[in-house]
Structure formats: structure tokens, C-alpha cells
Amino acid sequence: STHNCSPHRFYLHPGLSEDLVGTHPPGAHSLVAMSVGYFLEDFMDMLCNQKLHQSWELLFHHSVVIVCFGIAVLLHQYVGFALVALLVEINSIFLHLRQILLMANLVHTTCYRLNSIINLGTYVVFRIATLAWMTRWLFLNRENVPLATYAVGTVGMAIMTPMNIILFYRLLRSDFFK
């Protein structure tokens, strides 16, 4: 069994906090598989409908997620780890709402301001903290994770973490330090 580095147990499936490799709640494998489908569809949509210079970062992000989640789905392992990674997507709701408000030219509204605050808060909690926790878990469990999987996970975290810190800086600069 893997090292329990979670400060608290996962409420609905406590076994998950002790084993992110072989344990996952019912439906989790399907959720991660559907997420791979979503990221593939979104990847293809961006490839066909956006200019590469506008979407290369997201295409790169999606490629990393597709590879990592794809491995979890195919091996039926690390589904719990992928499930933790999906917590990041909670913030996506507010990132997408921000884009919609920008496109609707509603930047100077209370709604935009409120969303900016919630977006930043959920960004710190669900993106930065989750990625930090995942990196820590990977590091603490390096003996229990096969080298190839550890390498994929480490490279994935090494790509995602700076990308998310840069995006956080851009959001902060754009919405709070104009």
C-alpha cells in the first residue's frame, strides 16, 4: 500500500487516501475515461477552429492530460490519482465564465469582479494546492511507483505546475493589477 500523505481522509471513499494506485470508487474509471474523451474532443476542436499561436499552451496541456489519464484508463491503475487531478477542473468553471464575460464585454461589472475573486480563490485551492499535493504524493511514493509511471507523472507535474503558475500570474495581472 502507498504512503498516506493526505492530512485528512477522502470523505466518501476513505481507501483512496491510502491507495491512489489500485483503489478507486465505483464510477471513477468511467469518469476518468469520459474526461479523456472530453480532452480529446476539445483538443480536436481547438486544432480545427483556432490559430495555433492562440491555443498552443492549451493543446500542450491537453496532450499531457490525455497521456496521463489515458495510462490510468488503460492500466486501470492510478485512477485515484487522476481523480485527484480532476479537482483542478472545478476552477475551470470560473475560468470559462471569465472568458464568457470578457467576450460579452462585461469586464466592468460586479459579476465580473465577483467571478474574478472566486476564480482566483478556486485557482489557489483547486489548481495550485492540488498540483502541489500531487507532486508531494508522487515524491513520497517514488519507491511504490514503477519507474516509467513515475517518470510520466514527474514530467506531467513539471509541465503542469509552471503552466498553472504562469496562468495565475496572468490572471492576477489582468484582473487585479491593470
From TrEMBL:
Key word Transmembrane present: yes
Subcellular location(s) per record: Membrane
Transmembrane parts of this sequence: 56-75, 81-97, 117-135, 147-172
GO biological process per UniProt: membrane assembly; phospholipid homeostasis; plasma membrane organization; regulation of membrane lipid distribution
PROSITE patterns: TLC
Domain of life of the organism encoding this protein: Eukaryota
InterPro entries the record matches: TLC-dom (IPR006634), TLCD (IPR050846)
Residues covered by the TLC domain: 1-178
Keywords of this entry: Membrane, Transmembrane, Transmembrane helix
Short name of any one Pfam family annotated for the protein: TRAM_LAG1_CLN8
GO cellular component, one term: plasma membrane
Topological type in the membrane: Multi-pass membrane protein
Entry-linked PANTHER family: CT120 PROTEIN, TLC DOMAIN-CONTAINING PROTEIN 2
Name the record gives this protein: TLCD2 protein
